[in-house]
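Worked example

This section walks through a single chain of length 312. The input is the sequence exactly as stored; nothing has been trimmed or padded.
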Amino acid sequence: MSRTLRSFFALSLIAFALPAQATDNPEASPLVAACDALAAQPDNADNPPGLQPFPWATFDGAAALPVCGEALAAFPDHLRTQFHLARANYKLGNLVEAERLYGQAIKQHYPAAYFGLADLLTHSAAPDAGDKWRATVESCIGSGILACQTLLAEALVVGTGGIEPDPAKALPLFEAAAAQGSAFAQSYAGWMFDEGVGVAEDDAKAVSYYLPAAGAGDYFAQNNLAVHYDEGKGVAEDEGLALYWFEKAAAQGDAEDQYIVGGRYLKGIGTAPDFYKAAEWFRRAAAQGDARAAAELEQMIADGLVVPGPAD
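Given that input, the structure is written out below as tokens.
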């Protein structure tokens, strides 16, 4: 399964309807809370309790940008808000401003900012991006943050920053971070065991890493865990659990998973047939341009299984 990023989803929050700023404590500020609600990143230990984070695929930078900008103007030293504004700029392609904001947060050793900047530099075409990436990773590791090892680990898998690929050296770094609860590291270690990258293939071991990562909301772990339950790889085959994890992954916005889930509700695989749910998932996939989902929905309407919706 490719680890490419995909996008779908937007959280609605009307910025001008927020209460006026009335506190000197950013953690009690409705502006900061609104920014958190729009821009929180998974795996960030600084997230407020109970907050629903947004993976990159479902993160709406356009919605977050003005709200987080207003919050940072009110609290210019609040690192989490600074990080969220950097993330919004990065999502929208404002790379210079994103790099500046990430850099400011890194000066105060804000852990998530190292990862944001490293990812930005990995995808940058700038001639000095490799040197900046290496400096960011060295600074991150030097800060003593254990999870920073995952930056080096990923580089050892894919050869980022001019580092010679050596996946076998990457796995212990991912496993150390996974043991500390990093969903990203758990998901990546699971994928390495799944695909036999730097280690012998081991489906059961892959599942053991996918499970906590999927529970923490990692899309790739959810999708790959669904496949394992569907095919009985490393676990007993279970169509119900396969559907459960496919649906979790589909809710994060991937059209392929939405199409799969729609088909399973249509045919009653892992569940009783549910034409309403099938149609809703096909609609979501079709809205992203999935022609197969559009065709399935059209056939369901023609067969009288569902009535057309407003957009059908």
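What to look for: Residues 254-312 form one domain.
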